[in-house]
């Protein structure tokens, strides 16, 4: 399961060399991650409403090529793991050439909002949402 998001790099995201400041890549990952979570109906409000928070506990970015001011990019977020955690892989491409610019991943875990305890297995609501999405896709085929 994956989603692609296209965007143009704004001036306020670049440094004096007109290259995206390294910290903004995580923001681009977050934008794509929200669209991915929307895809199967379990975005951050849905998570909180179901009694869980999903903090990011690990993130990694590999900067391959610098992204420039006004460059159009495509960010792909792919759900890789969900049984005990959410692991999402990211690829950032130049939207016009398809050249891979950056890759990375984030890892999130469920925390029960009543007890503030870390869940060692993803809660059932996540499996239910993923199953509903799978059934929806199957019906569309």
TrEMBL record:
Q: Which InterPro entries match?
A: 4-hydroxybenzoyl-CoA_TE (IPR050563), HotDog_dom_sf (IPR029069)
CDD domains to which the protein is assigned, alphabetical: 4HBT
Which GO terms label this protein's molecular function in UniProt? fatty acyl-CoA hydrolase activity
Q: Which superkingdom heads the taxonomic lineage of this protein's source?
A: Bacteria
One Pfam family assigned to this protein is 4HBT_2
Q: Which UniProt keywords apply?
A: Hydrolase
Query: What family, per the record?
Result: Belongs to the 4-hydroxybenzoyl-CoA thioesterase family.
Q: This chain belongs to which protein, by name?
A: Acyl-CoA thioester hydrolase
From which organism does this entry originate?
Acinetobacter apis
